[in-house]
Amino acid sequence: MERGSDKVSVKLDEQMKHETQGLVRSGRSTHAEEWKDPEPVGEDQPDADLAPEGTLVGGVPEGMSPDDVEGRAELASFLGKSAYPMVRTQILDLVIERNAPERVIDLVRRLPAGTQFHNANEIWTAVGGSVEGDRF
């Protein structure tokens, strides 16, 4: 039977496929402990990408653009999960403390004052971003 690869056995092929399934599906690290992640590229090195020809091809949820997906993910990476609910000033302090880039800080500055936000989706929609449609 032709498998397309004669380097390893069928059993080993399946084991390797299983081991990398999380990385392939999520497009990001799947390590629970941060210290297990590979080190980021150096300041003088180009950024690495899992899809160098273009990110998120075929992976954009309905109702969102690739820019929405990347923008929300970048914003969420500086917010974390445990600080909610928060208001504009708390969010602004948090992203500044975590050394977010100026584009993220500018987004947070556009949030309405006095409104409580419970997750990154609420923050992203408040600054004009789109989120995926209803999940079932």
How many DSSP-defined strands? Answer: 0
How large is the count of helical segments?
5
Gyration radius, in Å = 19 Å
Instruction: Give, in order, the helices and strands.
Output: HHHHH
The low-pLDDT segments are none
Mean pLDDT: 77
Shape: elongated
Determine the N-to-C terminus distance: 41 Å
Largest beta-sheet characterization: none
Multimerization status = single chain
Q: How helix-rich are the residues, as a percent range?
A: 40-55%
* Beta-strand percentage range: under 5%
Query: Structural class, from secondary structure content?
Result: mainly alpha
Structure description:
- The chain has 136 residues and is mainly alpha-helical.
- Among the domains are: 8-37, no CATH class; 66-126, no CATH class.
- Helix content is 41%, strand content 0%.
- The chain has five helices and no strands.
- The protein has helices at 10-26, 66-79, 88-97, 102-109, 120-126.
- The longest helix is centred in the first third of the chain and has 17 residues, at 10-26.
- The radius of gyration is 19 Å and the shape is elongated.
- The relative contact order is 0.11.
- The model has no long low-confidence stretch (mean pLDDT 77).
Any descriptors?
136 residues, 41% helix, elongated, mainly alpha
Quick recap of the structure?
Among the domains are: 30 residues, no CATH class; 61 residues, no CATH class. Helices cover 41% and strands 0% of the residues.
